[in-house]
User: Which sequence fits this backbone?
């Protein structure tokens, strides 16, 4: 299943020489109203949304993951978790305490660590600002055999109150990638 | 530990320009003399109000340096040292490791994209006459700069680019300081003591660094003298926890092994490790396990220090700051100390450089960086 809204991303992946194994987005249907909460992550939808859309793409992987295969996590976000950052800035400016939980989610890596542990993704973890860079890094990591495939996840939090948070995830590999166990 | 998986392009990758700013002040000579002095740069924070924080120490230079100004100046200096012509600069992309502009979360929502990392990097590229296409921003916390260096080396080795400028910048500021303080990871005694008994945690530090990385052919063609080689690089993930390292070190060990293989080196060839060495117990012990796992018997003899004990933790910029420290130490033949050491931590057991810098005739050294999310990098630096 490939959501139709992902057309431009799929085209960009193809342009980068990648094969898309599975894809997901948020929202996909009207049922995608509220991002499911994620234990340990507070106040911001950034990490829960990233985890949700990534899980969707991983569940759609065609066939089971090959044992021993290495999957990289490449996160793409223009502004990062701006919701958490605004909470921190407000607390600092007001001279009040910052929640310790905000420390643990202050970088996108933290939710990548959650994802990696949950799905046994042992490849490199990277976060960059643009999709072109993210897809290029995915291709490079696979070519260099640092990974067999890569989960590229883009998160765009709504910048205004009336907007919607959006996410997309592509599980990609290279067309000439052999069975990772025999490569 | 062996892993026959890794690959790389065949091109040789060199560094032809470096520039840096740290709590010791601007310049590579200042940084080298600072770390070789063995005197940590930590002091009470004057730059902003820390009266509401549990801990009030950091390694910050005097005054209130501006990140955009300092990153641009550092990039320009690295390009100058590399002898890059204006036309060469205009063809060279910038990979910038950065957390983000503290002004962004304080701006109105509609104004934030203009304060985002890409806008920041674009302005730096423009100010320095670099290519404004193909720029990248890395925001992967403490492996941001080392990931950018690894990617730059990888694409240059594959012939996909002749040259990349990699820069990273972090200047101690109130938001990250408040977060780290809230996370209770800052050292209340004002010292960072990696791999040591009695350690209290980490401290933040200023770091802005830039390196010009290029193919040896491109450097030769313009008669530029390499300062060092980026001989090998490795990246891996722990798949363990959102913010704790995998205790057995297996994740970082895979990155180290991959870096060695790309360098065509064996463990005994590595004569210095500039460790990630954050100064927190879980991280130090995981790294020590990784070094033993990846290097085997050589782990007993290779000198190790974490210069975070001197210049502090520069977050997204750590990888480039510490690569420059490693390169300078190799070129000088003097390895900086692991400062703040109080005594043996039974969980570590490495050959630390203690008391005074160690004279070493080293050809190859390694720089490690680790981050939240179990992200690990290892870079092998060699003399040209």
Assistant:
């Amino acid at each position: 299943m490939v959501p139709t809204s992902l057309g431009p991303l799929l085209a960009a992946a193809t342009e980068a020489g990648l094969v898309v194994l599975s894809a997901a987005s948020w929202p996909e249907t009207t049922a995608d109203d509220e991002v499911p909460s994620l234990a340990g992550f507070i106040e911001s939808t950034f990490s829960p949304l990233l985890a949700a859309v990534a899980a969707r793409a991983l569940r759609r992987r065609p066939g089971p993951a090959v044992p021993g295969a290495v999957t990289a996590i490449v996160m793409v976000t223009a502004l990062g978790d701006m919701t958490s950052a605004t909470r921190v800035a407000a607390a600092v400016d007001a001279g009040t305490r910052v929640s310790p939980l905000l420390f643990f989610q202050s970088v996108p890596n933290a939710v990548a660590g959650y994802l990696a542990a949950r799905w046994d993704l042992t490849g490199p973890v990277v976060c960059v600002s643009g999709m072109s860079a993210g897809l290029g890094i995915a291709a490079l990591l696979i070519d260099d055999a640092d990974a067999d495939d890569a989960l590229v996840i883009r998160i765009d939090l709504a910048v205004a109150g009336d907007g919607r948070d959006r996410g997309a995830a592509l599980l990609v590999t290279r067309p000439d990638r052999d069975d990772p166990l025999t490569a | 530990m062996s892993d026959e998986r890794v690959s790389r392009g065949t091109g040789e990758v060199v560094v032809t320009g470096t520039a840096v700013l740290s709590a010791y002040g601007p310049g590579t000579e200042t940084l080298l003399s600072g770390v070789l002095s063995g005197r940590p740069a930590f002091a009470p924070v004057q730059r902003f109000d820390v009266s509401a924080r549990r801990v009030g120490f950091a390694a910050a230079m005097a005054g209130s340096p501006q990140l955009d100004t300092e990153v641009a100046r550092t990039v320009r200096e690295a390009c100058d040292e590399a002898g890059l012509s204006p036309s060469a600069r205009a063809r060279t992309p910038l990979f910038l490791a950065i957390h983000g502009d503290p002004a962004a979360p304080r701006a109105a929502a509609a104004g934030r994209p203009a304060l985002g990392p890409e806008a920041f990097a674009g302005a730096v590229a423009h100010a320095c006459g670099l290519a404004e296409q193909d720029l990248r921003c890395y925001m992967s916390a403490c492996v941001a700069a080392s990931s950018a260096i690894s990617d730059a080396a990888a694409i240059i080795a594959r012939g996909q680019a002749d040259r990349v400028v990699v820069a990273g910048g972090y200047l101690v500021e109130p938001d990250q300081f408040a977060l780290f303080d809230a996370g209770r990871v800052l050292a209340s005694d004002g010292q960072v003591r990696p791999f040591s008994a009695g350690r209290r945690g980490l401290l933040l530090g200023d770091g802005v660094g830039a390196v010009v990385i290029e193919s040896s052919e491109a450097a030769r063609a313009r008669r530029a003298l390499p300062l060092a080689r980026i001989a090998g690089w490795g990246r891996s993930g722990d798949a363990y926890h959102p913010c704790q390292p995998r205790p057995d070190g297996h994740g970082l060990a895979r990155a180290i092994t991959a870096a060695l293989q790309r360098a065509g080196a064996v463990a005994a060839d590595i004569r210095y490790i500039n460790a990630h060495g954050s100064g927190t117990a879980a991280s130090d012990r995981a790294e020590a396990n990784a070094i033993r796992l990846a290097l085997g018997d050589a782990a007993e003899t290779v000198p190790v220090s974490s210069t975070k004990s001197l210049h502090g933790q520069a977050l997204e910029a750590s990888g480039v700051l510490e690569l420059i420290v490693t390169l300078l130490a190799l070129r000088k033949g003097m390895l900086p100390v692991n400062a703040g050491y109080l005594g043996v931590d039974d969980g570590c057991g490495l050959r630390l450089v203690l008391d005074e810098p160690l004279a070493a005739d080293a050809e190859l050294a390694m720089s490690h960086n680790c981050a939240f999310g179990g992200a690990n990098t290892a870079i092998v630096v060699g003399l040209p």
Chain B touches chain A through 63 residues (CB under 8 Å). The longest strand of chain B covers residues 13-22. Chain B is about 30% helix and 20% strand.
